[in-house]
Every structure is written in structure tokens, then in C-alpha cells.
Amino acid sequence: MRPRGTSGAHARHRSLRLAGISRAVTLVGLLGLPGDSALADPAATADTAWSALPASAASNLRDPLLQRGQEVFAQRCAACHGPIPAEVYGPAFLPLMPGTQALAARYRGELPAALEERTDLQEVYVRTVVRNGFVSMPFFRPTELSNEDLDALVAYLTRERR
Amino acid sequence: MALPPGVGQADFDAALAAFGDIVGSDWVFFDEASVATYRDAFSPSRGESDEKLASAAVSPTTVEQIQQILAVANRYSIPLYTISTGRNLAYGGSAPVYSGSVVLDLKRMNRILEVNEEMAFAVVEPGVSYFDLYRHIRERGLKLWIDCPDPGWGSLIGNALDRGAGRTPMPYRDHFGAHCGMEVVLANGDLVRTGLGAIPNSGPNWQAFPYGAGPLADGLFAQSNLGIVTKMGFWLMPEPDASITGTIRARRHDDIIPLVRTITHLQYLGLVNCLYSFNSPVFEGAINERMSALLDRPNGGSAAEWDSYAESLGRDFWQTTLRFYGPLNVMRAQWAYVKERLAAIEGIAFEDGDVMQFPLTDDQISRLGDPATFGVPSLSVFSSQAGTTGHIDASPMVPHSGEAVLKAHKVYMREYRDAGMPPSLGFAMSYHQRAFIMFHGITLTLDPAENAKAREFYKRLVRVSGENGWGIYRAHAAYMDEVMATYSFNDGALGRLNNMLKDALDPNGILSAGRYGIWPKHLRGDRA
Predict the structure, then answer these.
(1) I need a surface site. Which of A97, B71, B81, B125 has the fewest CB within 10 A?
(2) Is residue A3 domain-resident?
(3) Cβ of A79 and B385 within 8 Å?
(4) In terms of domains, do A133 and A109 share one?
């Protein structure tokens, strides 16, 4: 018997067998289900997310590729490139959202500093920055951000907007 | 394609093919673009001939795959270099110490194996980041905190093995100190569990008692290259009720002596357990002519001379903020007692800070100005890097004495001045139980000439720290030999011991050659 609050490894091992389906499953569907995470794919689940932000709420996007791109952004990019909060809570240390801060300094209002607000991003630019880095932004390995997830991210950031 | 030194093309091809059979060909990387993602993004030698570069990478997902990879590496004498999340930026990133190594990338071993709320521990694999564990805990509503370093994308295991630290109370912020139980694959493929994990079916007891019986092996696998750690347990802090702060300001140069004596005494009693730093509004920032002249005086300037300078600026000499975590009435009593004990220092000033109540709401978390202080991972520390291409970090350990803190400030300020480097000296920070870290983060740019200066200065800081007995606690991958050379008691006996262990545990020298100055026999040569 394990004490209360234990999320068992065995249930988790079983769920690994189901990992293949996780790409099509939205992140929201996995939340709040202890032991039911598909951990084989580092980018597929909330358990392996990078962002401290809550996972993206119900998406207004219909295309599964764009939905996945939105999730990848929330998990992989938003901790640096999310919107800057209007008001900080508690003591301040360093400015939040370094990526957004850096782009605000670079573009000086000529372009939006938060990447999700950009409508001019080009595929080659996104791919190049992710895999090669940019100034103080480090690059990302395929084991951190798979080629498939990079495709989804590119599709999401370069999608047609109305 | 680059080859590992001393390995022929046919053997390398055979090894890569075998790696592909083990992990799947998608997870063996030898094309130029993919291998380039294993560069150190903050390399001090970016684009230069001595930049540390991998020849290839292989990324397993299981212990069994690691064992099979080791068999292949032993057969073909392939040098491997193990990384977990590969985010050890400012200490070498994902690049090998020994150029040409094949990176063994454990990022895909990313399972959170257990989080036990009642016994307050987690067991994770190397690819699990602080963000991952934080989110796992938050989603399940568990009343546990993690302790994370400022950049939250690193690995719990990788950071603990490099003996990193975070910013919540002791003992949790000393990440190696707060671990309990390891699983390690040895170079010969044998699988070892330390502590009570060596008892079959010990269950959660593995994370209840770190020692087991017999020699404590865990230390062999931190800051070393004697095995591959595949699981680690970590003690977690139960979520406290609340947190308050109290700020202390002291006017004079020598006030640091009773300040350190009293606060560390209270720390050793367990009444202060937060991360705090002794900031000096007088010493901080660029070194102007008056400061420079004082530094050239005997002992780097007398107390009276520095006090006169501080007075002319209208600044307090010292400032620190203590944070308490726990029930409100207990914290208020702790803070009241701190004030009582320090009241004898003439002119000392105290300021009560705000109360933070836990748990925080999602909205509060998303706006936290200092997330790591509350065990919330973020990347906000990179705001300090704007416009640079990173930094290299050297962090000497200075004992808990005001005299040592004063001396260290003056010694390092002179070094920055003499080298013509912009000061990037951190204050005396209490990351560890019984010594201060005085962090140095030396900025890198795209200018090779500036970076050459930064490299020389880093080596100089290492030497000066060693000469003063202030050991560097964690080495940058490019300067591990230099750091370890300062640990030279008895003509380098510690290094000889490390070499004996290396020869016994990894006779073919396939694991992370050069890490922390430990080289396999065939590469030791002139380095010994």
C-alpha cells in the first residue's frame, strides 16, 4: 500500500503504451487525470510542459495542427514570449517575459513584442530562430522540440488571420 | 561528419548504426544541423577553434537502452557525454567537455515516476524539468512546493548533480543535499540503486533514508563521470501557510561583522532558513576613481575611509532582506527575535514587509515578480541577459564571517578593475548552509576579442579564489581542469583518487571524459 497522494509508476507505464495517440489529443483533455499522462513524447503532455502558465484553454482553432502549435507555444515558448503582466504580484526580482521584453526593445512599438500577436512571421524565420537561437535566446534540440512540433509551431505562428 | 578523436570512420559508422537499432534512427543525430543544436549556446569560444563540439548525439528513453548504448560504446571506444535537459547554460550547456564526444541526451527520459504528498518527495528521470514537476504538482492540487533555480527549464537531476541551488528554505534549496536515493547505470551496464533502494521492495522507504548501509555512493556520481544517473528522489517542502519579509539596513562598513555573526547564528539555530544576500549599496556597480583609490590603500581601505565615502553618497553600507515561511504568528516571533538580537548595532534600521498567503491563485502565479522565491519556475532571469550572448559563471564559496565578506569584496573588485572588466560580482548569498556564494557572471558577446578577455578573466578568478581558500563550487565545462587544479592538497591527492575511481569504474574511459578534471587513462597524458 502506498500512502495517500501517491501517483503510481505502474499506471504510468501502462499509459506509455497509449502515447501514440497523444498528438491528436488536446492537452486540456489530459489535465487533472493523475497517472494518465502520455509521457513517451516529451512535447505531448502537460507533465513535460515548459511553461508555468496554465495550459491553453479551449482553443478557438479548428485545425488540429494549429491547435497543436498553440499548445507547443504555451508549453515551449510562453514562459519567455508570453504577454507581460500589467501588474506584478509580490516582490519584484527581474522583469518577467524576457523574450517579450527583448523584442519590445528591438522593435520599439513598430511590431508587437508578444509573438502571438505578430501577423508577419515567416516560416523560415521561426525555424531558424528555434534551431539556431537569436542573441541571448538559446536554440532548441530536436529532443526538446521535435521536428513535428516545430512544424505545428510554425503553422500556428504563421497562420492566416482574419 | 566529425569523428570522435581516435575513432575510425568504419567503427563510428558501425556504432551509429547500432545506436539507431537501439533507440530508433530518428533519435541518433549526426547531420550537421542537428549536431549543431548540441553546441553550448553560451560558449565562451563561440565560432572559434577551441569551441567544444559534439560529433553526434543519441537519445534513449529507457535504462535498458542506456545499457545497450554503453555496450556499443565500450566495444568501439566511443566517448560519450551525458546530458539531462542540456540547459546548464553558463556552465557549458549541452556541449561535451571533450570535443568529438557523442552526446548521450537523456531529455526524452522524462517521466515523473512518483510524487508522494504525505511523505513529501518526488522521484524523477533526468529529462524532467522544474517546469514539468511544478505543473504536475499544481495540476493535482498537491500541497507541495518544489525548489527551482532561476531558470526553470533545467533538469532536477542535472542541476542536483552539478550541485545547484534554488531560493526556497533550507534544506530544500541545496539540491544535492535534498536528494534521497539514486539509480545509476555504471559504464559496464550494471544497474545500482543507492541507500534503501538497494533493498528489494523498499518502496517509498527509498526516499525516506538516504544512507542505507555501507559507503554512501551518491557523491561519486555528482560533478563526475563515473556513472549515468537515471533516477533520483528529492525531498519536497510542504506548502507553508504564508511568508513575510523583514528588511535590515546597516550604516557602516564594519557593521557586516556583527550582522553576519548574528544572522548566521540564528541560521544555525534554525530560526532563519531563507535565502538572503548581504547587498552593499556602496560596493555595487561600476568602480569609480574614489573607490579605486580606496582599494589601493592598505587592506583595500579602512573602515573609516569607506564610511566617509558611503556618507558622501548618503547610502547605507549594507542591506539584506530575510524571508520567513510558515504560520504567521511563528514568523512574526522569528522576525521580532532577529530585530532584538540586532538592536545593539548603532543606527540599524528595520522594515516589515508584506504578507503572502498560500496557496497562490493562478492569476497571482502568472504575475509573480520573484517566482523562484515561492518555488515557481520561470525564465525571468534571462531578462538580465538582454543584448548579450550569455555569460560564464564562477561562484566561489566564502565563509560566514563579516571579515571574509569584506575581504572578498575588495579582492574581487580589484580584480575587475585591474582586468578592465565591468563588475559582475554578486553579493554574499546564502545558497548553502555554512558558506556564502559570491557569484560572478561574466558577460559574453559576439566579439571574439571581448570573449578572449572574458575567458582569461574567468581563469584569473578561479586562481584568485583558490589562493584565498574560496573554492569554486561548480565549474564551467571549458575550465574544469583549472577549477580542479585549485583543489591541490598533498600534490593533488584528490585528483589521484578521482583517477583511481575512474580507472576502476570506467576502464575504457567512455563516460564524459574531462568532466570535473577527471580524464580516462588514455587521455590523461600531460594533464596528470
Answers:
(1) B71
(2) no
(3) no
(4) yes
A155 occurs within a structural domain? yes
Which residues on A lie below 8 Å from B118 (Cβ)?
Answer: 3-6
Identify the H or E element spanning B1: none
The 10s digit of each residue's pLDDT in B334-357 is 999 999 999 999 999 999 999 999
pLDDT tens for B267-304 read 999 999 999 999 999 999 899 999 999 999 999 999 99
Question: Residue A7: pLDDT band by 50, 70, 90 thresholds?
Answer: very low
The beta-carbon neighbor of A91 closest among B89, B115, B369 is B369
Return the axis-axis angle of helices B256-268 and B328-342, rounded to nearest 10°. 140
**Shortest alpha-carbon distance between residue A64 and chain B (Å):** 23
Please give the residue of chain A at the shortest CA–CA distance from B134: A52
Suggest the residue from B136, B142, B447 to mutate for an interface test with chain A (most A CBs closer than 10 A): B136
Phi and psi at residue B357, to the nearest 5°: -105, 145
Domains of chain B, CATH where assigned: 9-105 (3.30.43.10), 112-238 (3.30.465.10), 242-477 (3.40.462.10), 486-527 (1.10.45.10)
Residue A21 resides in a domain: yes
- Are A143 and B59 an interchain contact pair (Cβ–Cβ within 8 Å)? yes
Taking an 8 Å cut-off on Cβ atoms, the answer to whether A89 and B368 are in contact is yes
Q: Confirm whether A113 is domain-assigned.
A: yes
Say which range, A38-42, A133-137, B32-36, B226-230, has the weakest mean pLDDT. Answer: A38-42
- Average pLDDT value for residue range B392-408: 95
- The answer to whether the Cβ–Cβ distance between B112 and A142 falls below 8 Å is no
Q: Which residues of B245-258 are buried (b: 16+ CB within 10 A; e: fewer)?
A: bbebbbbbbbbbbb
Nearest CA in chain A to B152: A50
d(CA B330, CA B324): 9
Please report, for the domain that includes residue A139, its CATH number.
1.10.760.10
Contact in structure between B457 and B381 (CB atoms under 8 Å):
no
| Alpha carbons B428 and A82: distance in angstroms, whole number | 33
> How much is the ipTM here?
0.91
Active site residues of B: 91, 473-474
Let me know whether A24 and A74 are in one domain.
Answer: no
* Interatomic CA distance for residues B97 and B269, integer angstroms: 41
Q: Write out pLDDT tens, residues A43-84.
A: 333 333 333 334 445 578 999 999 999 999 999 999 999 999
Listed in order, strand segments (DSSP E) in B95-203 are 102-105, 112-116, 121-124, 144-145, 179-185, 191-193
Q: Which residues pair with B116 in a beta bridge?
A: B121
Of B85, B378, B388, the CB nearest to A136: B388
The answer to whether residue B401 scores a pLDDT higher than 60 is yes
Instruction: Please give the residue of chain B at the shortest CA–CA distance from A54.
Output: B362
**A residues 77-96 closer than 8 Å to B (CB):** 79-80, 85, 87-96
Q: Do A5 and B116 make contact, defined as CB atoms within 8 angstroms?
A: yes
Burial of B205 (0-12, 13-18, 19+ CB in 10 A): middle
Could you give the number of structural domains in chain A?
2
pTM of the model: 0.91
Which structural domain, as residue segments, surrounds residue A35? 9-48
Which residues of chain A are within 8 Å of residue B27 when distances are taken between CB atoms? 143
Choose among B108, B114, B365: nearest Cβ to A9. B114
Distance CA B107, CA B128 (A): 7
Please give the distance of CA B70 from its chain centroid, rounded to a whole number. Answer: 27
Q: How many CB pairs under 8 A join A and B?
A: 193
**Rounded Cα gap, residues B72 and B102, in angstroms:** 12
